[in-house]
Amino acid sequence: MLARALTIAGSDSGGGAGIQADLKTFTVFGVYGMSAVTALTAQNTRGVAGIHAIPAAFVRAQIDAVLSDIGVDAAKTGMLVSAETISAVAQAVRAHAITPLVVDPVMLAQSGAALLEPTACATLQRELLPLATLVTPNVPEAEALTGMTIRSVAEMRQAARALIDLGAAACLVKGGHLSGDEAVDVFDDGRDAVELRVARLPTPHTHGTGCQLSAAITAELARGTPLLAAVECAKRFITVAIRHALALGKGAGPANPLAWLKEHASASKA
After folding, report:
1. Whether 174 is catalytic
2. pTM surpassing 0.85?
3. Phi first, then psi: what are they for 131, rounded to 5°?
4. How many Cα atoms sit within 13 Å of 73 on the Cβ side?
């Protein structure tokens, strides 16, 4: 049977991030994608012009509708907006025993717009992190969740372990916000820490990379891939997507998930 993956996240009207990016990524990985929309954004490559939050009870209704009928092999969360929505999602995860669960703690858009109410961070820590098979913060998100200052890979490693201490089963701290010739992510499963390194690609067109990366991990987990192997595959995927990013609009264009298909097609012909 075709593997099934659910994204619980916000909508990006520009198509580069959020549920649009997640569903594109699920499709590229050959996984059937479903969605529970938490918010609508008026958004393009230059920024977020407006946010309309979906009532928490209706977010829960979407999850219930999908899982009571179709079922799911893995799920991810993205933009959750408010403490009420986080609580509703956590309750649904427990009620439906959703696992594996990838938690992408989306707090800020690339443009700097707030996508999570400041008071909701504690709710995410308390209610959702303990349900996470993997949490995937970037450096600013890891700082907000841990209270740490992160300026180095060594501090990323400390933050990853701190997030596991908060309840996550495993953590991937993404280092794209740090400087250097390499883009370094730190994966920690509570036993071992692994540094995933690739050459940094010089492009401003990185919109949606966090969403696409966590969606790729979710898709691989839905297909039954072990966690570290899923993370490593997703890292290769997002590197390809950034290398072939789309210079759309007048701001930061999106990474291109379709490039993964072209790369694999070229490899097959070779």
Report:
1. yes
2. yes
3. -95, -5
4. 19
Q: Are 141 and 107 in contact (CB under 8 A)?
A: yes
**Residue of 215, 172, 218 lying closest to 195 (CA atoms):** 172
Known catalytic residue: 171? no
Tokens for 58, please give them.
Answer: 């209706």
Q: Which residues contact 126 (CB under 8 A, 6 or more apart)?
A: none
Please tell me which residue in 211, 225, 233, 253 is annotated as part of the active site.
211
Active site residue 209: yes
* pLDDT of amino acid 108: 74
Six token digits for residue 26: 């699920």
- Does the pLDDT value for residue 112 go beyond 70? no
What domains, with CATH codes, occur in the chain?
Answer: 4-269 (3.40.1190.20)
Predicted confidence band of residue 270 (pLDDT cuts 50, 70, 90): low
